[in-house]
Amino acid sequence: MKRLHLKALVAAAALAASGAALADITIGVVAPLTGPASGLGIPVGNQVKLWPKEIAGEKLNVIVLDDATDPTNGVKIAQKFVTQDHVDVIMGSVATPVAAAISQVAEESKTPQISWSPVATPAGKDHWLFRLPQSNAVMGHAVLEHMKKHGVKSVGFLGYSDAYGETWLVDFKPLAEAAGIQFGPVERFARADTSVTGQALKLVAANPQAILVVASGSGAAMPEVSLRERGYKGLVYQTHAAATSDLMRVGGKAVEGTYVVSGPAVLAEQLPDAHPSKAEAIKFVTQYEKAYGPGSRNQFAGHAYDSIIVMEKAVPIALKTAKPGTPEFRAALRDAFEHIGRTVLAHGVLDWTAKDHWGYTNDTGVMMKVVDGKFKVEK
């Protein structure tokens, strides 16, 4: 009897241990900790280190791997996440081409993906993909309204030749043309390029009233510096991928006066008291800068912060259906994302639905101006 009782206890303990392991929530984070987009990926990695140890009473396991700003690496990592680690959700990347490639793995494996870049997909191909950055169309609306306010009648384009640049071109060009703004010339460059002299000369020769630069992190400064060095005197606009201190650190005096569109998180203290995201944005900035120093706040770290807010609302819903580590939980988590309702984030008010995995309205974008080497909210 004692032997049988001991066996029963061992079996029960093993079962309990198995159940505990099964209940752990596993997040696979893929981000560019090296490569051209590392200026965006490193702050994300920093924020991940500040994540809580559990969600809804379940232990949180986080696996962070470097995609090196390479879509092929991103796919390999995502495949490892779903086949070996059996993650409950993939988060990343901040590099749009990588996030787009990962989305195919997420779709095929039926694993939810929260992207930290505004990745566009063909119609019907984002069933498992949810975005935390504002769409280019939403941010483009803020840029366009600012241009109209300043009487801009012509705008040139200097942007990445990859998915991020192309989606901005596709989204923004019709908005500008519909507003009666002449669009062009259109010039492109590769994310890894170190010079855009030829493209800058063509744009300077055309001399549009404004130029929209579509690049990210420290890489966003180089094309603007090139434009200024070749005598361009017009307005320069940058996208939300450039809303980091790297723009000023690398660009220096050349980026003074630049207009940059951003989510609210970067500008926490400057937001009006009535802004719905002000309190959450201040929480993010306080936490991040306590850990990493004054002025270290970052647009993309804000998205990583917001990821936990979303998970804390969705996980309790999904747990009513299944345990983490199972296909049933992954499906339940995906469904829960569509039903979390109005959710106040550091970067705006989100409301994902079955028909909308972007979730932001046109009033989300905040226009900033670089003044004395710092971002200042445009009134």
Based on DSSP secondary structure assignment, what is the total number of beta strands?
15
Mean of residue pLDDT?
92
SSE ordering: HEHEEHEHEEHEHEHEHEHEHHHEEEE
What integer value in Å does the Rg equal?
22 Å
In the CATH hierarchy, the third-tier topology of the largest domain is known as Rossmann fold
Query: Main sheet?
Result: 7 strands, mixed
The number of helical elements comes to: 12
SSE blueprint:
Layout: H1 2-23, E1 25-31, H2 38-48, E2 54-55, E3 58-66, H3 71-85, E4 89-92, H4 96-109, E5 113-115, E6 129-131, H5 136-149, E7 154-160, H6 163-178, E8 182-189, H7 197-206, E9 210-214, H8 221-229, E10 235-238, H9 246-251, E11 259-262, H10 278-292, H11 299-319, H12 327-337, E12 343-345, E13 348-350, E14 366-371, E15 374-377
Parallel strand pairs: 1-3, 1-4, 4-5, 5-6, 7-8, 7-9, 9-10, 10-11
Antiparallel strand pairs: 2-3, 11-14, 12-13, 14-15
What does this protein look like?
With 379 residues, the chain is α/β, with parallel strands linked by helices. It folds into 2 domains: 2-134 and 290-350, 3-Layer(aba) Sandwich (Rossmann fold); 136-262, Response regulator (Rossmann fold, 3-Layer(aba) Sandwich), CATH 3.40.50.2300. The protein has 12 helices and 15 strands. The chain has helices at 2-23, 38-48, 71-85, 96-109, 136-149, 163-178, 197-206, 221-229, 246-251, 278-292, 299-319, 327-337, and strands spanning 25-31, 54-55, 58-66, 89-92, 113-115, 129-131, 154-160, 182-189, 210-214, 235-238, 259-262, 343-345, 348-350, 366-371, 374-377. The strands form 3 sheets. The protein has a 7-stranded mixed beta sheet, with helices on both faces. A 6-stranded mixed beta sheet has the order 2-3-1-4-5-6, sandwiched between helices. β4, α4 (96-109) and β5 form a beta-alpha-beta unit. The protein starts with a helix and ends with a strand. Mean pLDDT is 92; it is low at 1-21.
